């Protein structure tokens, strides 16, 4: 299958756009059942048509998140009916306008944050869920920035309210959010960062984070050695049985924010028993204990915020994107792309996250445009070929 | 008993100070046993002498806090051995310097935040626990400001991080902290305040708070009518069984902060059973629920912060006092004094808080200086005479 509409994903290029010729069949990643990696496949489906308030996007790059692993395993409330197209974030170009889409034009470059359905060559999306990106930002950077930097920004500045001279501890320093946290926290003077990651990433990440601790080590004891008075802000994407342990290293008036539950996703296939066991280990917290100890416990779940608490989020998200785009333009932040895979290689892309091998964002694209490889972050891209993956050992449900 | 050192509590008056003649016997409020109001009495004791790093303060005005009710009932961890002098805050003048007290001089006007022992005519205190006050601030205002405005400032700006256009809900609008919260929150543009108090206070407080709700009403339902999208910040000094109910009115990314447990202090005498029952009703909170719902739960306990987590608090508190003193000088905040009682009338002072009759701060002084009455907030002072109180009905333990 080939694209009839061969756009170049070059940033800094403004030219008048005509309505492109659109294919009848499009490529997407479809989740056919829960559990095994075999259930997620690139297939062809008919091109969708935008309705009232919607636009059609030609998708260029999609982000892969840890949350997508829980989608594949069915460990997510409020999933669409199977089969469906997963994916929460992508970047692309508006190629068709539905009725009542004022303020948008064909050819505009945008980030899309749909409820699901992002991993598709063409995507119909409500105008409320798209955000125009700067000319200087590549599609790949846009896809790498959206969920990770939004999450990191809200954690540090909105909920965490970090201040000059404070200390922040986070996990998965090499992940998309981890990279964003290390870049954004450095915008505040004299911030100290402590982060965990696998030992194999220490060399690459040593300039990003002030103190690197080995994941699965007793990071609480290690952090106490570095910071005996306690940490101002702990950002926890692991959850599981780490929460109570982690809270003990916050200093008075310190904050602990849970923003993920990746500890519950270590199995390959759907495992409700393991999930329940991990959930159970998340001890409940006594409000009186927080009162006695001057501590804060918060939760942040971007997907729930966007789609179950939507009433006020559009403007809020737009404001944060504006700030992020300014920081990008001024060179203060720069999304790191770990690897780019074609839709055909979705299992490789997911495995990279599940095995915690990535440094930066894992990106998938309908087809990998070789020309782009020479433009977009060629230094840190491991692209997988499009001839089909060597699927890792897996187990059907 | 009369004071040999008759200073006038006039603000704006700087004159060279000599070491005053100090009395051998001083007046204080002593807690002799837990439970009944009869256990707290004004008596005479020998004047203490400052040691290394300490100064002697001639106390002019003391604040009475809700926490003092729990002290009287013995419902407080880490109490001194009986009998002892209670009281966490007072204002006064330095009258004697111990060895090694650089940076302090006789005659300096200060706020004192001792661990206990504030309710005394003369007080020995470590220099780390005193803060110089502006010339324009009366001793009574200083005593009324210290705990209440520190608490309110930290709740709103440090933990709560309130922003333009947000909505804040708090209880006990007429209390010392309530008044401070209403004044400080108005420093942020377009803040909406919702607060509870007894109906009898509505007329007096109607200009302080945007929406007044009756205490003991279903304030959650009432607040939802005013603010269907939810409240950004809820400040809870009641705790008890209100916490879970209260959390439900926070909006996404909203914060709920517990800073008191006054619901546990409704009885006159020590009642561990009632306490345990109320404590029990404070349901524990699931971190996963906070994660799913994008909510924050925090606790703030100023006394614990100052005395059990002291390592970093001195400078922190000094910074906040500096900000508060600037706000005071510029006329943005003005402590409200409910009533002034002599040490002899301590039971009346405590009853005023326990019965929630106060609007603003309840102050006690060794002796009420009549001259001061004409200087300090004469419009809102109900002073009790010094001939001894009509003690309310009470029950010995």
Automatic annotation (TrEMBL), chains A, B:
Belongs to the zinc-containing alcohol dehydrogenase family. Quinone oxidoreductase subfamily. Keywords: Oxidoreductase. The lineage of its organism: Eukaryota, Metazoa, Spiralia, Gnathifera, Rotifera. One of its GO terms (molecular function) is oxidoreductase activity. Gene3D superfamilies: Medium-chain alcohol dehydrogenases, catalytic domain, NAD(P)-binding Rossmann-like Domain. It comes from the Eukaryota. Residues 374-397 are annotated as: Disordered. Residues 35-364 form the Enoyl reductase (ER) domain. PANTHER family: SYNAPTIC VESICLE MEMBRANE PROTEIN VAT-1 HOMOLOG-LIKE. PROSITE patterns: QOR_ZETA_CRYSTAL. It comes from Brachionus calyciflorus. Residues 387-397 have a biased composition (Acidic residues). This is Enoyl reductase (ER) domain-containing protein. It holds the Pfam family ADH_N. InterPro entries: ADH-like_N, ER, GroES-like_sf, NAD(P)-bd_dom_sf, Quin_OxRdtase/zeta-crystal_CS, SV-ATPase_mito-regulator.
């Amino acid at each position: 299958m080939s694209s009839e509409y061969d756009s170049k994903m070059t940033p800094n290029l403004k030219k008048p756009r005509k309505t492109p010729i659109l294919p009848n069949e499009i490529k997407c990643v479809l989740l056919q059942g829960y559990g095994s990696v075999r259930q997620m496949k690139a297939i062809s489906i008919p091109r969708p048509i935008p309705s009232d308030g919607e636009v059609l996007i030609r998708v260029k790059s999609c982000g892969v998140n840890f949350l997508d692993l829980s989608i594949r395993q069915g460990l997510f409330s409020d999933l669409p009916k199977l089969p469906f197209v997963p994916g929460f974030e992508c970047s692309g170009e508006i190629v068709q306008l539905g009725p009542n889409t004022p303020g948008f034009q064909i050819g505009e470059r945008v980030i899309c944050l749909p409820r699901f359905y992002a991993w598709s060559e063409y995507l119909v999306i409500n105008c409320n869920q798209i955000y125009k990106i700067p000319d200087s930002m590549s599609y790949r950077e846009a896809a790498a920035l959206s969920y990770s930097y939004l999450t990191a920004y809200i954690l540090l500045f909105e909920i965490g309210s970090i201040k000059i001279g404070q200390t922040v501890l986070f996990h998965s320093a090499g992940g998309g959010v981890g990279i964003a946290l290390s870049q954004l926290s450095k915008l505040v003077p004299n911030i100290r960062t402590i982060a965990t990651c696998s030992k194999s990433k220490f060399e690459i990440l040593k300039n990003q984070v002030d103190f690197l601790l080995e994941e699965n080590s007793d990071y609480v004891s290690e952090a106490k050695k570095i910071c005996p008075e306690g940490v101002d802000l702990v950002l926890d994407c692991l959850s599981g049985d780490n929460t109570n342990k982690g809270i003990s290293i916050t200093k008075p008036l310190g904050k602990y924010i849970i923003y993920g539950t990746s500890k519950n996703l270590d199995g390959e296939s759907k495992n409700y028993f393991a999930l329940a066991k991990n959930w159970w280990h998340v001890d409940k917290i006594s409000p009186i204990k927080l009162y006695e100890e001057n501590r804060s416990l918060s939760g942040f779940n971007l997907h729930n915020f966007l789609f179950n608490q939507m009433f006020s989020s559009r403007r809020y998200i737009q404001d944060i994107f504006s700030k992020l785009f300014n920081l990008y333009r001024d060179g203060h932040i720069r999304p790191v792309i770990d690897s780019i895979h074609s839709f055909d290689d979705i299992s490789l892309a997911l495995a990279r996250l599940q095995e915690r091998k990535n440094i930066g964002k894992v990106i998938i694209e309908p087809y990998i445009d070789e020309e782009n490889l020479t433009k977009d972050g060629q230094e840190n891209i491991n692209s997988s070929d499009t001839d089909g993956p060597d699927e890792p050992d897996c187990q059907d449900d």
